[in-house]
């Protein structure tokens, strides 16, 4: 099996949101994956993870 990055794995996911969305869908997916792997269980915990690590996630 060929190795792929998270971005490459999810690049075919269609974004059903309007084009004026604040964040790219792939950024939200990556943040959610990182949050869940780190122990987040709820949407609120995922949101808090993203807020606390905003600088790290934007690299």
From TrEMBL:
Q: Where is the H repeat-associated protein N-terminal domain?
A: 8-58
Pfam families under this entry? Answer: DDE_Tnp_1_assoc
| InterPro entries referenced in this protein's UniProt entry, alphabetically | Transposase_11-like, YbfD_N
Superkingdom: Bacteria
What PANTHER family does the entry give?
H REPEAT-ASSOCIATED PREDICTED TRANSPOSASE, PROTEIN YBFL-RELATED
Q: What is this protein called?
A: DDE_Tnp_1-associated
């Amino acid at each position: 099996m060929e190795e792929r990055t998270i971005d490459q794995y999810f690049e075919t996911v269609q974004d059903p949101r309007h084009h004026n969305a604040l964040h790219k869908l792939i950024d939200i997916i990556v943040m959610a994956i990182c949050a869940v792997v780190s122990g987040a269980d709820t949407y609120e915990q995922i949101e808090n993870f993203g807020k606390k690590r905003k600088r790290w996630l934007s690299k």
